[in-house]
Each structure stands twice: as C-alpha cells, then as structure tokens.
Amino acid sequence: MKQKEGVPVLQENMTLATISFQNYFRLYNKLTGMTGTAFTEAEEFQQIYSLDVIQMPPNKPIIRQDNQDLIYKTEKAKLKAVARSDQRIPQARPSGVGWLWFNRKKKRKNRQIFG
User: pLDDT tens, 68-97?
Assistant: First the structure.
C-alpha cells in the first residue's frame, strides 16, 4: 500500500513491550463499569483485579418470560411451530424467531454451492 501511494517503505517497526488487558487495567487506581454479565464472573474479578462486584436491582420490574426449551422431532414440525408462535407476537414487537435455523440453513446452502 505504501509503495502504491508513493510513500517510502521503511523497515518494520519492532514491538518493544506488550501488556495484557488485566495488567493494563491494574494501572488505574479506580475501575468502574456496568454490564449484565459481571455478576456471574465475580470470582474472576476478585482474583484478577481484587474488585468486588455488586448486583443492582433493575429500576423496572422484569417482564421477560423465560419459557421452557422446545425440541421437535423434525425440521418441518419446528418450522410450523415457529410460524404459529410468530403469528401470536404483536406486530409492533421485534421478533428474531428462527434466526439460528435460518443461518444454519444458509451455511448448508453455501456449502452445497461452493463445495
């Protein structure tokens, strides 16, 4: 790229030092952050950074419903169930039903086309 743009090509730079993310963050006196997954890794934060993790309650009640996983004998039965469940979701709400299946199907199709 440099040669193409008429910039002189120099010898590659040499890395003189590297630092891990853990050690980089330890350079700071104070660390703070917010994430939905830190609480499950509280032990790691304590071991690596000597930091406590606190869990704050949400400011609104949780409305998500965690339903049981559904397993189907055939792909056809699964697709019928996806279509039925998608019809029950109000149109104003976003829906990602069946995306994992779609991506797998797309990969399979690409494998057939490209070998």
Answer: 888 999 888 887 887 777 666 666 666 665
